[in-house]
Amino acid sequence: MFGVSSQQVISVIKTTLMQFNPVSELRNPVMLLTEVAFILSIFMAIFPGSFSLPTSGSYEEFYLSVIVMLFLTLLFANLSYAISEGKSRSIVDSLKKMRKETVARKISEDGTITTVSSSALRKGDLVDVQAGEEIPSDGEVLEGSGFVMESNITGESRPSLKIIGDGVTGSTLLTTDHLKIRVTSDPGETFIDKMIDLVNAATREKTPNEVALTIFLAGLTLIFLIVTASLFSISVFLGTSPNLMVLMVLLICLIPTTIGALLSAIGIASINRISKYNIMAKSGKAVENAGDIDTVILDKTGTITIGEREAKKLYPAPGKDPKEFALDCLKCSHYDLTREGISIAKLARKSGASIPEEEMASYEFTPFSAETKSSGVTRKDETIVKGALKALEEKYGLRDQYVEGVCKEISSRGGTALPVIKNGKFVGVIELIDILKPGIKERINSIREMDIKTVMCTGDDEITAQQISQESGIDEFVANSTPMDKYHVVLREKENSKMVAMVGDGTNDAPALAKADVGLAMNSGTPAAKEAANMVDLDNDPTKLLDVIFLGKQVLITRGALTTFSFANDISKYFVILPAMFSSFTVLNFLNILNLTNPILAVTAALIYNTVIIIALLPLAIRGVSFRPSSANELLKRNLLLYGIGGAIFPFMAIKLIYVLLLIGGASW
Amino acid sequence: MTSSTTLNQSSSFWVNLFLQNRELSGFIIVLIYILVASILAYILSNHIAKIYRGEETIISRYARPFITFFERLIGPAAKKKMKFREYALSFIFFNLVAGLVSILAIYYQNYVPFNHALATDNFSLIINTVVSFLTNTNLQHYSNPLRFTYFSQTFVLMGLMYIGPATAFAVSMAFVRGILTEEGHLGNFFHDVLVSFFELIVPLSLLLTVIFIIAGIPETTMYYMTIHPLFSGSTVNLPLGPVSSWESIKNIGTNGGGFYGANAGFPLENPNWLTNILEFSAFTLIPLASIMSLGKVFSSKSFGRMLYAVIMGIFIFSAMIAFFGEYIGIPSMSGLGFAYTGNMVGKETAIGLASSTTFGVGATMTSTGAADAILASYTPTGMLGIIVPLLMNDPLGGVGTSVLNIFTFVIFTAFIASLMVGRLPEMMRIKLGSKEIKYSTLSLVTHPLLVLIPLGATFTLSFIMTSFSNPAPFRITALLYEFGTSAANNGSEIGTFLTNQAYFNYLDAFIMLFGRYFIMIFQLVIAQSLASKSPRTEGENAVRLGSPAFGLTLFAVMIVVGVLSFFPVLALGPLLSLARDFSLFIWRI
Questions:
Q1: Catalytic pick from A125, A138, A299, A547?
Q2: B-contacting residues of A 560-599, CB under 8 Å?
Q3: Is A230 a member of any domain?
Q4: What's this model's pTM, rounded to 2 decimal places?
Q5: Cα gap A467→A24, rounded to integer Å
Q6: Over the stretch B17-36, which tens digit does the pLDDT of each residue have?
Q7: What residues does A615 pair with on adjacent strands?
Q8: The complex's ipTM?
Q9: What is the pLDDT of residues B49-85, one digit of tens each?
Q10: Do A88 and A230 have their domain in common?
Q11: Are B342 and B384 in contact, with CB atoms under 8 Å apart?
Q12: Do A431 and A321 belong together in one domain?
């Protein structure tokens, strides 16, 4: 079942049964009423006489089927709750497994090291962690650097380098070197503890939106309760003794059982689905907020572009043989294993250059450094260097009008120019361009189709920023930006009463993250950033902000669509049950537009539809309704057509089908 | 149809066309009524928009001295900015005092001048009458003007006819202010009442009184006119009285209580087709103008247009059902081959079918409840056109309540529509929290519950049902109408049973009070909650309230909520009557 272990199945069944307790139904007035009706129906079936119900054989079959259907309605509602709750419970369980006690070496003020349990650590304590040990608690690296394996949290199998100032998470494994760490959270407040709390709270607590919807559903339920009650007294007045069981079926069919049964599942499923993206949302509210975003602030590097550049074209200096220049490029990039270097080598080979490995072995490679702003290879008779124009000009005291011209032209296109010097002479220029992340253009486009404004922040100059934003379809950019600029953009948008989402990882992003309505922090970020944000991405992929927005919208749409559907369904039920109920008034037969001749069978068919639709829509509730990113107006029209008008028409067909199937199946009553 | 047989032939093509196609002319008459009302309302909507925005109006110059005088009289209470609690308390206190004073005045009416009426010692009737006039319902369980003296009529009941609309309009001003402002207060109740009184209701009613006097409606304080009919030895006492002034506030204030028992069906209240269309335009004037003004108030013309289209859609739909229902009448009758002119039973021949039904639907679309035909003689189909707007809690509403009522639906629709486009609920760029939804839901369920609970209860009390004489389905229609009209503060009556008995007098009084004050208080809570929220700038990605898609959603929500709440009762009332009559006549003959 759903591809889970038997243990989980048992826990789902257990939760399902526990939900039958009326106290746990209190949070859901619709289901509470259904449960009351269920208990009442049992009494009615056992003592038909005291409810003045007819007791012929076919009626008893009908009563039995009502009991079964009401039971199934409750079961399906509880099951949908249990399945989604079970999913989040398995998340909690796996988190809890991580939170085991370890031994920590605490450094006292005088520098001595004592061994304590990890649970004894308090905020501000200093600990020493050696290679091969687990980091005992969340903290910040004070001394040393080393690779930390975070696969149990992020799923990333490559260890990541932590240096001074970086944040580390408790229960992750230090694989190399040793670190001195300052603990940043008390026991019970660590990242994992918080995640457990969050998942638990998200299961228990309703978002404001869910509360509002529950209130509305309670209002509708109240109306239908009164409608049914008044129908009882009117039919008594008209001299037809109403069949109480039929009246109760009418009530159950009218109250919004569909959305009532699925409401909690939708909410829990949203938390589950966001965890599937490896994002920890601090509340269900944060996910819903994400759906409401007006402006998204994106970093260029890492979000829109891969962060490294790629060689696009080689420009040999005048009089230089292009093949020879390609060979020089290949030589100077052969050992350069940055993405840029690899791409240059690839381009050079494509241009016809090749060099045997043995020959390259004689070269010595100087990697890129921030100081020299260049890299290259040297052999006793040959030096090939590539680097920034200014740095090379200064270093070698060279000026070359052609090269300068080419460089200027390249940067005016938003690219990066990389001149190459061979033996103290310019031999040509390599053009590098920023590469967009695969698929980013389509995603930004889909965001824009939802009329969400995109703002790109980049440290690059105006021209590059413009080039990238044009290429990727960004609405607005802030060039030469500092982290404070991000904060200003957030402030500006907030002043215009817009909802803002952003990504950040540094401590200096924290104010902006805190101010934004949706702040997604990278798990690799500093504790301050993670603290300020309302979501943390464990995979450190800033592009996921777009997924979060999509998901947030989907949750809200699912809720709205199912409510509309549930509401629109009621029309058909009137046309089925009312003619059946007053079948003694043959003149009212013009209401029986489905032409269901057997009244009791018609009522049964309506109830079966009402029950089955819950389980039929459960996958939709858990998965979320599909939607194409488009403007609000388009979405409204489409969903209105699909779930409003569709919801009004579909049950007519479904009930007729069930009725015919019942007839064929030989239901005789 | 058969109408071509006997009608006069004329040489003009157009006259022939309209005379011989009465469906067409009826249809056009309905549209003319709505067009005239819309044009007049459009002219007034600028004035109302200014009042809502707190700007100077052309009347401010003349009204200011009165307003300042009364503000000085009230003292500091008329100056301070009120939040929900103060505003609501002032509103309730003001209404309570007006109600209590009125009850006392009517109880002792025989001790004051201009007394020509029978003594009124029926306390339940007094309570019912005062409550109904105070709540802008004007459910008249008494037969006018026999029960109440000219003094009671002029000073007490007519006073209430001014106070009811003025306070309701004040609440709507507070509601609009709540949406517009960010400062967290709703304004001053006393100021709002004075403004709506002196700048809106009084000038319009004065103007209309003059027009009515010119049109031939009486205005006097003299004793009943004694008439000696030609062919009978008896004498008839014809009460005259201050009919014109009564009539103008009855319509302008969407009160609807007639000076005469037969309401606008009586020739002295509504002499001809001109006064008929004048009265229709008068009672739709302020509600329609208020709705139209919203576009200007919220600087979103499309929002105003959308509301107008939705409400007028319901209006035209109901008016067509009512007209064609009455036009077709009873199919078996028109099938007999005579020139059948439709169901003219209970209708004034000077006014005719189309005008009568449009007037009737207009009276239930607004909370006026005036009538120029006997509702009890409507065919079941015609009755559907009249009763459906009533069950939707008067979609066009009354003075002030037009804005309050439509917003219960707008807020709820905005909630659902926002969700359906994947946004957190918002309206007018303001976030809707669970509090707004809670009170909006309460407003939405108040009306159906106030109708259905008493309805269900009354059917079980057999001793109450003894005064009914019509067939059972019609009794259901009659009771549904009785509680519907009370809950919607409409005041039109279908009658056909003894309404003036303690049970209905007290029960209806309760329903009217709850139906009016509950919804107003709930809307004020919402206004207060919105008042402290800052609006968001127009988001392209939000649901646009002025868009046709939203309009359609709003329309569907209004219909579906109404239908879902009342369909079973409608099925056993009008629909069962309809089916029975048809089967009775069609299949037996």
A1: A299
A2: 560-561, 563-564, 567-568, 570-571, 574, 578, 582, 585, 587-588, 590-591
A3: yes
A4: 0.84
A5: 57
A6: 877 788 888 899 999 999 99
A7: none
A8: 0.89
A9: 999 998 888 888 888 899 989 989 888 888 888 999 9
A10: yes
A11: no
A12: yes
